[in-house]
Amino acid sequence: MYSMAHQRRCSISYDKRPHHDQQEGRKPLASDVKEGCWKRPSLFQFHDVEPNCLYRAIDNDHNWDALVETDRSEYGVVQNELEGTLKRIDNFVRAVGECDKDGFEINKKDGKIYVRELTLGRDYFRLLGSFIEVYSDKLVYSPYVELFFDAMKAIGLTRFDVLPGPRFYCPGEKMIAAEVFNVIIDKIRKAYRDEAFQRQLKSRSANAKRNFASNSKFALRLIGDCSKVLVLRIDLYYTKAHTKGVTAEQAVKDRLHLFNNMRNNSLFNNSIGVIWKLEYGQHRGNHFHLMFFFNGQERRSGDWLADQIGKYWAEKIVPGKGAYHNCNRDKRQYWNCGIGMILHTDSKKIRDLLTAISYLTKKDQYVMAKRSKKCRTIGRSEMGPINKKRVGRPRKSELDLSGFVVP
User: Fold this and answer.
1) Is 256 helix (H, G, I), strand (E, B) or coil?
2) 306 has a pLDDT exceeding 70
3) 202-206, 343-347, 398-402: which range is least confident on average?
4) In b/e form, how buried is each residue of 133-169, taking b as 16+ CB within 10 angstroms?
5) Which of 4, 160, 298, 339 shows its CA 20 to 30 Å from the CA of 250?
6) Residue 56: which of 123, 3, 135 has the closest Cα?
7) Checking DSSP bridges between strand 340-343 and strand 228-238, what pairing results, if any?
8) How many helices and strands, by DSSP H and E, does the chain display?
9) Which of 225-229, 234-238, 338-342, 394-398 ranks highest by mean pLDDT?
10) How many of the other CB atoms lie within 10 Å of CB of 173?
């Protein structure tokens, strides 16, 4: 979940015309559809999040540092340039690949070198040092960012963080920095236009879409099967003193320990599903984002329940090492709040839930931790058969979920 300010900048527009159901909290009328005022969004509208918004979400996640006390959690944000720098590297590589120009125009005459700064040189040459500083061998970046780092490694990754200017002579390369910058551009452009790179882009995007479709269908199925669903969002991670010592493989073992214990723990009674995501942050290390789904007819106190699950992780699963953040306690901070109690008729909250799932599943496209191929990064509880037989009073209204489902 993300702050109000962040979600205002990254809000998804469902239709340019007013939505009567959003404005008044009701289902659309036949006249609304006839007039063209209301349009049910396709599921993939929620997946088409702008790269800049994803980088901002990544930065928010990577920069949280937490200290869990006896009865509450305290958080402080560590500010750095991760978000902005990754975004600028991404923009640089895209700009290089989509044009045929160099960064500098260089002419040699009468033993002198004349350098004229072009657009790419003006916008990106002086940023090379900051680009290199964010590199970590523990992370796998987006194909665009990885392509940039590969080009830098081919020339000498650490030599450019102290370049004073484009006319600076580089003894190792026997050319001035402007010429080296043009060489970098040439390497990036050739790799960018290679068929293998384009296939990599399509493969990674398709994988993220599959994850989004699978988890969204799962959530919609649960909502369609219940009149009320209680959704909890909890982040589970490790204290600062133990962050560096926990590998992805160890984190997976701890998650499995938690899930195995859920079977015989009354805390998880009436649980109908869970979505989980393993991520890596510069300050949090390996950690999990989880969405728990409970039958809302049986469980109502979401804030308290999320706290108890977080404490169970910190005190029983990884005693002395665990920490957590209860997102349900901060519902007022989120512009699009897809957590808490969700009624099967509440289309606004269902949209917000899909938006949250979109961020969760698509972030791997831009940065993730290196881990073994056997180490899964995202998953959910298995979908059981839909409960066709309902007991109790018949529903007065139904929400048609078919418009949200991927064909």
Assistant:
1) helix
2) yes
3) 398-402
4) ebbeeebbbbbbbbbbbebbeebeeebbeebeebeee
5) 339
6) 3
7) antiparallel
8) 13, 14
9) 234-238
10) 14
Q: Is residue 129 within 8 Å of 163, Cβ to Cβ?
A: yes
Scanning 25-174, the segments in alpha helix (DSSP H) are: 30-35, 51-62, 82-97, 119-124, 128-133, 143-155
**Which residue type sits at 367?**
V
Least Cα distance to 62 among 9, 143, 139 occurs for 139
- Least confident range from 93-102, 144-153, 172-181, 208-217: namely 172-181
Strands 73-77, 64-68: parallel, antiparallel or unpaired by DSSP? antiparallel
How far is 391 from 155, CA to CA, in rounded Å?
A: 69
Q: How far apart are the C-alpha atoms of 240 and 242, rounded to whole Å? A: 6
Measured CA distances, 150 to 135, 143, 156, 262 (Å): 11, 10, 10, 44
Average pLDDT, stretch 336-356? 86
What are the phi and psi torsion angles at 183 (to 5°)?
A: -65, -40
C-alpha 177/C-alpha 164 separation (Å) is 9
Condensed to tens digits (0 to 9), the pLDDT of residues 118-137 reads 999 999 999 988 888 888 88
Banded model confidence at residue 50, pLDDT cuts 50, 70, 90 = low
The pTM for the full model equals: 0.73
Going by C-alpha positions, the residue among 250, 360, 255, 268 that lies closest to residue 309 is 268
Give the amino acid at 363: K
- Tell me which of 6 and 90 has the higher pLDDT: 90
